[in-house]
User: What shape does this take?
Amino acid sequence: APLWATHTAIGFTAGASGAAAVYPVDFVKTQRQTAEGKKAFAGLSLPATLVHYIQRDGPLSVFRGLGVQVAGVAPEKAIKLTVNDAARSALRASFGSLSFAGELAAGVCAGACQVIVTNPLECVKVRLQTTNAGNCFEVVRSLGLEGLSTGALACALRDASFSAILFPTYAHAKVFLPEMLHLQGAPSLFLAGLLSAAPAAFLTTPLDVIKTRQLERAFADGGLPSVGDVALGVYEEGPDVLFSGGFERVLRSAPQFGVTLALYDVLTQYCVDHGWLG
Assistant: This one.
């Protein structure tokens, strides 16, 4: 198979597995970040919020938008993971070694490149999660090209920052964890991914909140408030609001990327061993 097809298959398998496993947490995270959800679920725990939706709308309600998420995983993860690997290799080849600044630059590049897929995906997902807008095809048709690009700047800032933290941390964690814990193979890679994604998810929560609020307001009144206006509005509610859904974001992203990064490395090595990747 062509290299791009192999990379896409690896990215899809790794990404879809991670995304599906933690999707209900992602659903609750989005609800708690909206202005309406912040008030409705104040003081409720994650399990209590999940129970609320399951009792009210049925067990499948917390999986609204999952199809869109999984459908977008293949190109998103293929871009994110492949661009990071390619950028790291190019920088190492150009400078003879890869500095920490180079690792950050590769991560930023990977995160920024994936926005072309991630932003339309999240526009549809958030619309499905926060409204009764119908199925994903109806949402895509109603949003149009302009609607699907809503919040692209906030999404790019969030994803570039996330990847700049995630990938350098993972690269080092998967080296020192086996030595420190005497843990090898997939379990070590999973733990490295878990520990790398947790700080990346938490520290970029303010950007995620701003992105969610920007989409919420755009869908409600048809306008597109600037990132600065949304950030100021959120901050004026209270600095703690910037980290709304932060716990759920970590709870979702840490195991998701533990699975995704571990599977990506395991599958990549498997393909290399069988001559499917050079």
Q: What stands out?
A: The chain has 13 helices and no strands. Residues 194 and 254 are 4 Å apart (CA to CA).
